[in-house]
Amino acid sequence: MQSISIHTLDKVQMKSIILFLCFFTMSMISLAQNKDLNQKISISLKEISLEKALDSIAQKTNTYFTYDTRILLNKPLVNIEVSDAVLDDVLRQIIPDTTLNFQLINKQIIIYPTKQEDDLVQKVLKPQLQFKKIKGRIVNKKNRKALSYASIGIRGKTIGTISNIEGEFLLNIQSDNFNDTLVFSFIGFKNTEIPISQITTDKLKIELRKDFISLQEVVIRNTDPLALLKSAISNFSQNYPEQPSLLTAFYRESVSKNRNYMIYLESILDIYKSSYQSTNRLDMAKVFQSRKIYDSNRLDTVSLRLRGGVEGCLQLDIVKNKIDFLNPENLHNYYFHLEDISSYNNHPVYIIHFQPKANLQYPLMQGDLYIDTRSLAIIRSEFSYPLTRVGETRHRFIVQKSSKTRVRPLKIEYMVSYKNINGKYYLNHTKGNLKFKVRHKRKFFAKTFETSFEMAVTQVDTNNIERFKYRDRIRPNTVMSRSKLPYDASFWGTQNYIEPEESIQQALKRINANLQQVAKKED
């Protein structure tokens, strides 16, 4: 199985690594290469594969390897024993193929075909590949409280991100967009817009004002919330894309025990979204790049596999997947109430509260729907299982567990939002939080496990969209934290993602002391 230090990439990923290299000057590359590829190493390798040999070298030298697996196919087994030898010479001994070359950036050793070197030099010199990193925090202007999960995007473009639970965000802007405008949006608040060219600080503080909606601004179509919801459902075909699209998304999941993080995973995904009018085409995702770490000191014998993850995020597209409270055949099982009128993107939205009727045979979810008053598009929803019935949902979420383990759900909560792009609403952000009480038969005290999974769409492409090959896509039952994934020390480069919260940052500092990949533990 793949080890922590071996990082394999497909053709698209290799291009991404080459682009990442372009942000360093040639002098910096030369200095880094001289410093680390000239370090001395002593190692003995007997009859092992090239991949395992590189893994051993990586651990010895505290470096990481990145390469297209196809360029190292059918290479002979490695036999080498050296003492105090130069790393560059050792690599050339185990990879004598002169059509391949080595480049080192920030402890990342890139193995690439020599013929790509000229292209690399040219790309380093191209100024249009520059990026601007914009960080900041979004707060309520009145009380300075953080606005969690606010939307940040380029006006009229398909690029954006989401703030974290503490209102913090990070957005990488390509030079092509330096003359555009950033838009900051949050339910119930007025938008704030800032021209990117006017941003000179590396730490923005965005203060959004409450938006108070008068009844004169609202087009009251029908005061009956059920009739209003039925109208929204009937408008699905015109409000959501009728053509497939390709989404780039940031994904993360975590598992904590008694409030201490044990597993943390982050990925950049490519997602094929089929038409919202298609009933027989499934959405699919594939991993672009990823990392995962765990705290081995906090793992124990309790082993659970929970439903959720990437497939859970895709299923949270409630418009496409016709969840119960949006399925016309099931609406009679709910009570609906017009809770409030708020605003989003400087326009009024209805807030409809729903809850299941009493004495139903199966537990159903309760929550709120946010509906644009103009288009009647559902732009957001927050929903969960009632605490009185959440315990009945255990079999819906536990995929695999020990027969000696007792599991009781404590909390099942979800959120989804959509973004308007040129008159159509695209998936923007999904999040799930699940909390369980777990007790082993032989132990007196129970432990509380919490898992969360989250996906934020950072870019939407609607041109020349093709379905993924079967072998490339993530299977629906995949547990990401137990899968072999490519690990890249430089990782994000210019990718957009959600800033980790303070609690996560502190956990990562602690976990980082003994950084490991789950895949290595599984060997």
Structure description:
- The protein has 523 residues and is of the alpha+beta class.
- It has three domains: 6-127, Phage tail protein beta-alpha-beta fold (3-Layer(bab) Sandwich), CATH 3.55.50.30; 130-212, Immunoglobulin-like; 217-522, no CATH class.
- It has helices at 11-21, 26-37, 50-61, 87-94, 117-124, 225-234, 236-239, 309-315, 318-321, 394-397, 502-511, 518-522; strands spanning 6-9, 40-48, 64-68, 78-86, 100-105, 108-113, 131-140, 151-154, 160-162, 168-174, 181-185, 192-195, 204-208, 245-257, 260-273, 284-294, 304-306, 334-344, 347-356, 366-372, 378-384, 398-401, 405-421, 424-440, 447-461.
- The strands form six sheets. A ten-stranded antiparallel beta sheet has the order 16-15-14-25-24-23-21-20-19-18, with helices on both faces. It has a four-stranded mixed beta sheet with strand order 1-3-6-5.
- The longest helix has 12 residues, at 26-37.
The radius of gyration is 25 Å
Helix content: 10-25%
Pairing-aware structural class of the strands and helices? Answer: alpha+beta
Q: DSSP helix count? A: 12
In percent terms, what proportion of residues is strand?
Answer: 35-45%
What is the mean predicted local confidence, pLDDT? 77
The largest sheet, given as strand count, sense and whether it forms a barrel, is: 10 strands, antiparallel
Number of separate structural domains: 3
